[in-house]
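Deviations from the work plan: none for this task. Representative record:
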Amino acid sequence: MSDEIQATLNEMGRRARAAGRTLAQTPTDRRNRALSLAAAAIRTDAAAIAEANREDVTAATAKGLSAAMIDRLTLTPARIESMASGLEVIATLSDPLGRVLADWTRPNGLNISRVAVPLGVIGIIYESRPNVTADAAGLCLKSGNACILRGGSESFRSARAIMAALTKGFASAGLSPDAVQMVPTTDRAAVGAMLRLSDYIDVIVPRGGKSLVARVVEESRIPLFHHLEGLCHTYVDAAADLEMARKVVLNAKMRRTGICGATETLLIDRAVAPTHLAPLVLDLLAAGCEVRGDAAAQAVDPRVAPADENDWRTEYLDAIISVKVVDGVDGAIDHINTHGSHHTEAIITENTATAETFLNCCDSAIVLWNASTQFADGGEFGMGAEIGISTGKMHARGPVGVEQLCTFKYVVRGSGQTRPG
Amino acid sequence: MSDEIQATLNEMGRRARAAGRTLAQTPTDRRNRALSLAAAAIRTDAAAIAEANREDVTAATAKGLSAAMIDRLTLTPARIESMASGLEVIATLSDPLGRVLADWTRPNGLNISRVAVPLGVIGIIYESRPNVTADAAGLCLKSGNACILRGGSESFRSARAIMAALTKGFASAGLSPDAVQMVPTTDRAAVGAMLRLSDYIDVIVPRGGKSLVARVVEESRIPLFHHLEGLCHTYVDAAADLEMARKVVLNAKMRRTGICGATETLLIDRAVAPTHLAPLVLDLLAAGCEVRGDAAAQAVDPRVAPADENDWRTEYLDAIISVKVVDGVDGAIDHINTHGSHHTEAIITENTATAETFLNCCDSAIVLWNASTQFADGGEFGMGAEIGISTGKMHARGPVGVEQLCTFKYVVRGSGQTRPG
């Protein structure tokens, strides 16, 4: 059975590689037209997609899945429309392919340019959110990459219905059905089989909870764009404007607690702890946030629980925050580089030199000065859309948009030059 | 014993990570001064380096190593001087760190910039060429990366003597000895131990023969900048200038046959085979090149041996070439994408449209029009120096110079922005 799955995946990979080569040469307007037609097909098929989703939700409810899972799984009419309009937005983005990233001429007359080209084939492994099907396929198509999608078993019927609509749209623009393929089984062995396709898949994007991502990291021989967790910090410096700090910290923690850019640990400069710690902690408590702190934070209010070493390493993804007093910006940087996940960190300060030290020395994909960590998002960065956020240092870091789904090649134009020596 | 080696490597990794964080913040002029002082130290220590090298060469000769290996191992006074001047050249390159790769401001006033920062820690695994010690250490230092070097056993004494000189130079500029470290044993288990340091090493660069690189590819859980082979092609199109083609093909194959940019397969458009095949093949034969060809090539001269399927997949690294007639540019692209190693390919043609098709459709790191494949080299590209050439698509592709030894971070500057909704 597992051999059969591997054979199926190998064949999908082989077809994706060939389709990717064709897609790389497909003109901008045809790729954009395919996206628009897919958006239209999703609107046309909205009822069928909603019906498939109802079946998924019924099955998930019967299995006793959590309310949060059911919510992620559920496609409302607004969410279906949002998939369609998302594809249209991707169609309006400027073409990431063919961009001349650098261009120079050598003394011998050779002209060298570094030109953006697709990565080739992208694999996306995701869980319960069925909308990832459309979002990921759209970003890959825009960037000239073939893709292989593998959704979670609980959203399989929904994803299949969305895929059917996408396929119709893409086919109307004359694209090969091999350009966007979906793994046709919910068998878990298919994930392992997909991770072995290093000849055919150039990069894997795992989208889901920590256990899914950890499994992919463990098993994959294919490069990944991923983050395991977003253990983000906000540091309130001695030179912070307290009112700004209160506003930003509350937003960074509480706007949405379940996203990877939510602040999980608040660090406060010892120099201003006597004045700043209490209002910041009391704001969070008043907003319904559980606070776990060091001795200083506990002294603010009896509701503050003691934090242990484990709290500094925990991504709560919930209305819980850990709070610690540190010795200035160096103490904050040291805590962040030691305990953090290299995702997103913010400093609140009016002191430019201190801010620059923090921005330089935090070894994270995104560092912010006087702004909420919840801005860690491709849309908020103006990238139009993102396929995920990477904490890796190789190739893509931070939000991964259509430009990051490209690599480059060197194109050298000469007039018969030979190399001397 | 292997546990002890792993413990040693872990400790080296831990120190390298810390040293890398410091080096990332070390000003340009101090990094450049360290390079100049290391160059001076190599000159001062030239006699000691030469003596250590003599011991390596004596041992290698006694072991019966090939003449080519002995040549790669031998350090002449000119080669020692070349290491020193190479470090000085790296010192003159512009600083790759802190470059603002992109910068934009969002409607909400957030300023976002993408800034070049070091990758962190680079591991270099190499074989008999002792000069890699200085070249690699210099490129890593320039780009703010700590490095861990692991040379081959046959060049161990030479590499250790070079390393001693480098260490003195770097220390004179006040750099930590942990910034550039060398694995202190020739035990092969150290390579495996190094490849397990994924917490401490960000990228591994294997430099050496195919068997070394293949072993590293097989075992490494750390990303690599590498190429397994350079199976480069030159395609002579129907619209080629025959004189240019003769000159370029001869250079592409014969200038140096042992480098990765040497052409291994010559493809000729069927439309001009009757006129172009014979002069091209006869030139190669006259230059002492062994020619293995398809039926058409064999018909040119009795010295042309038959090529089999294996020849289209062989990187000879020698004065041997395979020759094949193909059906125009599409046939050439198809052959190259099927049999090639995605390294470097050239087309000779006077037809712009045909050239652009070739440049677009060959899925290789470097594609050239009317120039020799032997230009596949960081120095020839004007990058100053390279740590290697990558056929991977992730992060670095083609020559890997100091800019490719960098990653980036997003720096976001605000004035108290919080994310709505």
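Chain A touches chain B through 59 residues (CB under 8 Å).
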